[in-house]
Each structure stands twice: as structure tokens, then as C-alpha cells.
Amino acid sequence: MPRPIIGIIANFYDGVAGKAHPHARMNAEYIDAIDLAGGLPIIMPPLTDPAAMDQFLDGVGGVLFGGGYDIDPARFGQPRHAKTELLAARLEPFIFAMFARVDARANLPALGICLGHQVFNVARGGTLHQHLPDVPRPNAIDHFARQSQYTGGRETHFVRVEPGTLLAGIVSGRSELAVNSGHHQGIDRVGTGLCVSATAPDGVIEALEDPAHRFLLSIQWHPEDLAPTSPEHLALFQSLVNAARQR
Length: 247
Hints:
- This protein is α/β, with parallel strands linked by helices.
- About 25% of the residues lie in helices and about 20% in strands.
- It has 7 helices and 13 strands.
- It has helices at about 30-35, 50-60, 90-105, 115-125, 165-170, 225, 230-245; strands at about 5-10, 10-15, 25, 40-45, 60-65, 110-115, 130, 155-160, 175-180, 185, 195-200, 205-210, 215-220.
- A 9-stranded mixed beta sheet has the order 4-1-5-6-13-12-11-8-9, sandwiched between helices. Strands 2-3 form a two-stranded antiparallel ribbon.
- Strand 11 and strand 12 form a beta hairpin.
- Helix 2 crosses helix 3.
- It is globular.
């Protein structure tokens, strides 16, 4: 049986001070997680032609939006924080154009991770905390923790999974899930049509989904780092692949 094709939205980096050519790329962990989940990963680089974007989406069974730098806060009506590191000018409009197309196709499964989580929210009219250390929170967690071999690259904390959600079904009804941290921004006001399906102990929103969409799920942590050894994190990619297969 052919593998379902999962389109991965590429990241893009401008040349830094003339020392590197501009380049599109995607961390291999995303590719490996889709492969391990039984999907066929292909990467979409940032283009400006709307017809090319539509053709790409016509040819895939599901879409993955991965991590990256920060969204321009002008998109959600805020001045730029000193710690905000903007996405490349070529990349940000492309990501939002692709999400708008995916969002309009209610039967096209989509998973957002880290930056992807924030894109889903901002595209739906939500806002972000630009720098979580500045946000008062009881028992605040360091969501941009130091590297740790134990978690495949980042420190661990637990999130509470809301019962009855798509996410709860994916992780077999577990009420808690150990996740990793690697972000300094987070969800503030939730976007239209989205519901919260997981939160950290300090109140940071860790997952969003749209109950009206066939499969529209975003998470703040990095399951691609954990998927090789953690069945519940691999299940996120397997669910995307299975939704693409059923489409």
C-alpha cells in the first residue's frame, strides 16, 4: 500500500552577514518522525506563486508546520519585544499563506509544532506572549530549558491533557503527558474556533485544536525529538499519517 504523502513546510534562513547562502531546510527529526509513522515526507520551500502552493496541497494527504523563529508581532497588534527574533522576510508570508489554504480545506489534516502552534493561533486572530519569562505565572517553568540527553534535546515537564479532545484520543486517554521545552513565546488569547487541549502546570497553553476540523491540532512542545523512543509522541505523527490515509 502506498504511503500517505505528508507535506512539510520548509524553514528558511537568510544569509548571515554574507557568511552563508540563503537556504531552505527542515530538521531531520521531522522527516524521520513522519517516516517512522508510516508517511512519505516531502518538503515545500517558500515560494510566492499561489498556484504552486495549491498544487503542492493538491498532492499531499496531510501537512506539518514545524518550529522556527518568531512571528512579527505586528500581525497580532503588538510592538516588537527586545527578545523577539523575527522569521525571515521571505518565510513568514509563505507560512501564513499556506496555513490559510490548509485551513480552508476542512478535510486536509494538519499538525503544528512549536512555531506551527503559534501560527495556527495567530492566523485565527489570537495573540502571543512574546517572552514568557516576562509573564507572571505561579510556579513558572523554564520553557526554554537547557539541553538534556534524557529528553532528546530539552528538559521535561508535564502537561495536563483535556479529556474528550482529539489530543486525548491520540494519547489513549492519558490525563498527563511528559513533554519537552524549547520555546520562549506562548499562546495568550486563543484564536477563533480553537479550543485548548493541553496546558502546562504554570498555565502555558501547550496544545490547541479545532473540533470543527477533521484534524487540525497544534502543540507547543517538540514530539519529533521524542518519537523514536516514546510511543505517545510517535502517536501524534501516526495520527496525522492515518488521517491522511483515510482522506
